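Quick log. Single chain, no ligands specified.
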Amino acid sequence: MSEYVVSARKYRPSTFKTVVGQEIITTTLKNSIKNQQLAHAYLFCGPRGVGKTTCARIFAKTINCFNPTPDYEPCNQCESCINFNKNALFNIHELDAASNNSVDSIRELIQQVRIPPQLGKYSVFIIDEVHMLSKDAFNAFLKTLEEPPMHAIFVMATTEKHKIIPTILSRCQVFDFKRIQINDIVQHLEYIAQQENIQYEKEALIIIAQKADGSMRDALSIFDQMVSFCENHVSYEKVIKNLNVLDYDYYFKLTNLFQQGNYSESLLIFNDILLNGFDPQYFISGLAEHLRNLMLCKDSKTISLLEVSESIAQRYVDQANFCSIAFLYEALNIINETDVQYKTSYNKRFLVELMLYRLCFIQNQPTNSPVQNSNTIVQNTQTTTTPTQIPIQSETKPYHVQQTTETNTTTNEPPTSKINKQAATIASGFSIKKQQEKNTKQTLIIDNKEKIEEIQPFNLEMALKAWNSYLQRKETDIRIKTLYTKNHDFASWNTETLVLKVLNKSQEQEILKIHDELLAYLRANLKNPNIKIEIAHSEEDIKSDKPYTDKEKFEYFEKKYPLLNEIKKQLDLDFM
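-> predicted structure:
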C-alpha cells in the first residue's frame, strides 16, 4: 500500500502559474526575474493558507534555475531544480521564527549568510512567521538585512504584518496576499477531484470553499475529510451534515413563510433548527446572508456577486421576483438589530423568535397585530403628549422667550424632530423622579393655559410674594434656593419683568433650565400672561458667612474658643 499524502502537500504548486488566486503577485515576481531587478529582502503578508511560503519557495527555485522557461518558470529538469524538488538544495534555507526567535538564532543565520551558494547563483533565506522574532532579534537582524552580500536574498512571511517593526518594513519590498475567492477554490477542488477520480456535486464544493474562509490549505484539508466521510462521492447533503451547515432549503422556506405571515410555521422550523444542534446566532447570520442574496438578485448587474452554484442562483432569482425591495430592506434591518442585541440578551431564543414574528408581520400585519409600525407609535405619542409639551430653551444668551412659549402653547402639533426625540426618550427608559417633575411642570403650564385670559394687575408686594413662594417650594432646585435666598437683591421686579442676576455662565444655565417652569408658575399665580423673565450679569460677590482662608477660619474659632489666641502666642505660631 502506497503512503498517503494529503492534498495540501500532494498538489502544492511548484510553478508560478499553478498558484491559485495570486496573479498580481506572481506576475510581479516573474517580471522582477525577467528584468533582473531582484531586491535583497521581500516580505510576504496575508492570512493563513493563501500561498505565502509556497510563493517564496517557487521564487527561490526560479532564480536558481539554470534553464528557466520563456515565461520565467522553473524548468524542473536542471540539477538545481531536481535537487530542490528532493529537498537537497543547500543554498535555500528555511527558518521557523516561531521556534527560533532569539538573538542567538539570528546570529547563526548571519553566519550562514556569509557562505556563498554551492549550486546556483543565490542563497535564499526563507523566514516563516517572522513576526514571532523578539525585539532584540529584530535589532540584531537590521544591519544584515539592509546590506547583505550580493548572493543573499531574504524572503520573510507573516500573518501579522502589524507586529513587524517599521525599521524592518522599510528595508523590504512588501507583498500583500489576498484571500482566495470562492470560485477559484471551487475550480481547484474540481481539478483535484478529477485527478483523483472522485465524484462530486458542485454545491458541496461551494460549501467547502465557503467554510475555508479564503484559505486554500483549509479548503484542501476539509476536502480530504469529506472524501473520507463520503467514500469518494462528495454530495451536498453529506457535506452540510458533516460540517454542520444549514441547508439552503431552510432559508427559502422561511422567506416564503415571511411573505405569507405564517409565524407559527416559522417558529416550528426554528425549533427544528435548534434540535439539530445549530447555534441561533449562526442561524441569524445565515438568514441575513440569504436575504442579502435576494437583494442582489433584484438587479441584474449584481447577480454576479452571488457565490453559489448556477442552480441555487436560479432559485434566488425566482424567489427574489416575489419579494419587494422594501420588504428585503426592512427584513435586513430587523435581522441586523437582532444580531447586535444577541450577545447582551438573557433570553436568546426569545430574541430570535421575536425577530421571526417581526419578519412575518412586515407585509401581512393583521388588525390586532402585536407588532405596530414605528410611525403609529410616534403618532400615538404625539397625541398624548402634545397638550403638555414644554418649550425647550436652545440659546444661552439673556433674552425674552415669551414669543416662543406662546407659540408652543397654541400649537397642536409639534415639529417632527421633536416627536422623534420624544419617542426616543420614551423608548430609552423610565424614571419616577423625572416623571414627577414632568407632571409638576405640566400642571403649571395647564393652569397657565386655563387662566391665560384672566389678566389681573399686580403690585410689587404681590410679585415678591409669588417669587418667594416659588423659592420655598419643595420641587424647586436647591441651587436656585441657596443663591437667591442668601442674595435677595439678586432678584428684582421691573413692572411685569422679573430680573434675575447671575455671576457666571453656570448660574445662567441653571436659570435657563427652570425658565419655562418659573414663568408658568408666576403667570398662573399672578394671573398675568404678560410676565417676562430677564437674566442679567452682576459683578457683585455672593454673600457668605463661611470662612475660607486659614486666617478667617482661625478668627472664626477664636470667637468661640478665646484660649486659642493664647496658645498661638505661647507657641509663637503664625499663618503661612
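Residues 60 and 514 are 78 Å apart (CA to CA).
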